[in-house]
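Summary of Year 1 activities. Much of the first year was spent building the evaluation harness for sequence design. The harness presents a backbone, in tokenized form, and records the residue chosen at every position. We chose the following record to illustrate the format because it has been used consistently in internal testing since the harness was completed.
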């Protein structure tokens, strides 16, 4: 029925949604039957509102995955159990693990959407290029994350100039402060599960202003995370708090029996710094 089904990662963020939509549009224009699907029952409210404010409705893509075998392309992640075959990966979370997918592109780029569009602008519409810049802003916390590549900043500036995009609107969208009115958000925001060898870990992150005043909120979150560790039999859970007032981060690592806290003087990148460091330790390479 489809040539390709495209998937972003579980609990998709703006980059996953935008990359999926853009790849669907691109492949459709190439004459392929491609369909981006979001199988998650719930999409993060913040992701929805950021996308909606740039004319993209992620809910349009929510649906159950077909039960028949299909060919899948993963964007913004590179591991997934599917009914059928993963035939392609386009990602920006380089790893020391190796894969044998027919097509595998995983590079140190600021966002997957940027990896798709940069240098291929002729294949995309103006609105799609703007969405790719939005995804880049959100994924790099408006260029404050360590994963930001200088050349992607240059590209963003060039595109904003060429197409007259509202740079400050895009920049503000990238700085989005997480709504923590429900303490569960510390567990669910940006929640990702990782299988590193035989090790099962998970992580989430939130972006807050004036983090000194949020200590009691973070304490409240602990019980949600401790339960999640038990229910999913995890070795550890990493909760990253970005301080958007000082542009630094705190990494809380929850183990079944203790918590460790590490302060970092910049906005850390989960995919580029935190997870690769754990990979190295767990795989002892
Ligand atoms: Mn991404």
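For this record, the design step produced the sequence shown next.
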């Amino acid at each position: 029925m489809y040539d390709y089904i495209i998937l972003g990662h579980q609990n998709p963020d703006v980059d996953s949604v935008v990359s999926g939509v853009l790849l669907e549009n691109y492949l459709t224009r190439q004459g392929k039957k491609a369909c981006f699907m979001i199988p998650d029952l719930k999409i993060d409210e913040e992701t929805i509102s950021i996308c909606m404010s740039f004319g993209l409705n992620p809910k349009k893509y929510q649906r159950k995955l077909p039960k028949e075998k299909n060919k899948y392309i993963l964007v913004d992640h590179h591991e997934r159990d599917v009914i059928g075959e993963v035939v392609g990966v386009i990602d920006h979370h380089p790893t020391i693990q190796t894969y044998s997918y027919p097509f595998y592109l995983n590079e140190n780029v600021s966002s997957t959407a940027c990896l798709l569009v940069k240098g291929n602008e002729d294949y995309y519409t103006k609105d799609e290029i703007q969405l790719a810049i939005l995804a880049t802003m959100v994924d790099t916390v408006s260029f404050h994350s360590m994963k930001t590549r200088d050349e992607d900043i240059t590209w963003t500036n060039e595109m904003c100039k060429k197409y007259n995009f509202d740079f400050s609107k895009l920049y503000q969208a990238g700085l989005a402060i997480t709504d923590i009115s429900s303490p569960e958000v510390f567990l669910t925001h940006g929640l990702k599960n990782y299988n590193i060898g035989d090790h099962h870990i998970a992580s989430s992150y939130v972006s807050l202003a004036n983090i000194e005043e949020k200590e009691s909120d973070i304490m409240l979150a602990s019980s949600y995370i401790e339960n999640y560790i038990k229910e999913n039999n995890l070795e550890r859970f990493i909760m990253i708090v970005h301080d958007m007032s000082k542009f630094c981060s705190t990494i809380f690592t929850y183990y079944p029996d203790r918590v460790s806290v590490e302060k970092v003087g910049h906005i850390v990148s989960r995919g580029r710094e935190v997870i690769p460091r754990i990979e190295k330790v767990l795989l002892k390479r």
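The first helix runs from residue 14 to 29. Quantitative recovery figures across the full test set are reported in Table 2.
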